[in-house]
Amino acid sequence: MHIGVDSFVSTVTDPRTGQVIGAAERMEHLLEEIALADRSGLYSFGIGEHHRSEYYDSAPPVILAAAAARTERIRLGSAVAVLSATDPVRLFQQFATLDLISKGRIDLVVGRGSFTEAFPLFGLDLADYDSLFTEKLELLLQIRDQEEVTWSGKHRPPLVRQRVYPRPVQDPLPIWVGVGGTPESFARAGFLGLPLMVAIIGGEPRQFAPLVDLYRRAGAQAGHAPEKLQVGLHVFGFVAESTKAASDTIYPGWEEMFRKVSRERGFAPPTRAQFNATSGPDGAFFMGDPDTVATKIRRVADQLGGVDRLSLQMTNPRLAHEDLLRGIELLGTEVAPLVADI
User: Fold this and answer.
1) Quick one: 18 exposed, middle or buried, by C-beta within 10 A (0-12, 13-18, 19+)?
2) Which of 33, 238, 334, 340 could make an S-S bridge to 290, C-beta 3.0–4.6 Å?
3) Cα 46 from chain centroid?
4) Which DSSP helix (H) or strand (E) runs through 118?
5) CA neighbours within 13 Å on the CB side: how many for 239?
6) Is the Cβ–Cβ distance between 296 and 243 less than 8 Å?
7) Residues 335, 246: contact at Cβ < 8 Å?
8) Do 252 and 319 meet the contact criterion of CB atoms below 8 Å apart?
9) How far apart are CA 208 and CA 5, in angstroms?
10) What pTM was computed for the model?
11) Confidence of residue 315 (pLDDT cuts 50, 70, 90)
């Protein structure tokens, strides 16, 4: 199994001083984090996409280009690119260019995203939520697989014998589908033979086993080889010297994040008991010392019939830069070797 990190590049208040880290300094910290992930032996680093005041990741390709210039081995990618809200032609051009800069170290993970701000921002109708993604994914795959494209659809002007450049180093450019919990999304990815990135942000990971099985069955029925049907997990968590230290370090920022989201969506406010339960052996959070996290990764991989990649999302608005650096180092040097043989 390959282990990596995902970041949503949240604004950060230093928990020791109470001072908000400036945007430029936060970006510099992020690039330091990615460089350390590279040196620590982690397999990948992904950057999310949000269009909200508490995040700095509205332009992931720009961040990834800076990261590509500072790293040598680590794979870089989106986590996820909100395909519904962008032009597939431009998205392919950006990630093909990144692939050239990084010499073939790019993964493009596309999805709908978990927030809706991009829709009004780019003049899109939420009523077209499903058809936008389906149509744009079809076009993106055609651009990837054919240098000359003829295509027509509902949400963008047609293309007639258009050539899209540049072409990436990797042929084909890896395109993953990021999914939440809808069976249709899992089945679509399997039918298309695309690798799957499952966002597990609540509940119990083992509950996703029937959906992962659906993905694999759909892929097999469509004639795709098993090795093409890769499964990745995007999960929340943190690694520290002890499980208590991991929990205590992460909880204040987690409570702040989910209190805001709960207020926006009309949910009950989060509690420490809820956090502790979700951080337990069967919960969605991968939290603890290296042995605890590695044990959980092994158990979940077995429950899901095998996992090829796991990315730990450690973004937190009250996590000190030094603590995050240590978490990344522990993940790369201690957790990853314990699960490399899965």
Assistant:
1) exposed
2) 334
3) 6
4) helix 118-121
5) 27
6) no
7) no
8) no
9) 21
10) 0.96
11) confident
Do residues 89 and 54 lie in contact, with contact meaning Cβ atoms separated by under 8 Å? Answer: no
Contact 236, 285 (CB under 8 A): yes
pLDDT the model gives residue 92 = 98
Give how far Cα 226 sits from Cα of 132, 189, 193, 195, Å. Answer: 29, 13, 9, 11
Q: Which of 146, 121, 124, 117 is nearest to 54 (CA)?
A: 117
Return the pLDDT at 228: 95
Q: Where are the beta strands (DSSP E) in the chain?
A: 2-7, 44-47, 75-78, 81-82, 106-111, 148-151, 159-163, 175-179, 196-200, 231-239, 286-288, 309-313
Measured distance CA(65)–CA(100) in Å, rounded: 10
Whats the size of the chain, residue-wise? 342
**What's the confidence (pLDDT) of residue 262?**
86
The confidence band for 181, taking pLDDT boundaries of 50, 70 and 90, is confident
How much is the pLDDT for 114? 76
Contacts of 210 (CB under 8 A, 6+ apart): none
Q: E strands, 180-256, where?
A: 196-200, 231-239
Q: 């990190």: which residue's tokens?
A: 5
The rounded distance, in Å, linking the Cα atoms of 245 and 239 is 9
Confidence of residue 241 (pLDDT cuts 50, 70, 90): very high
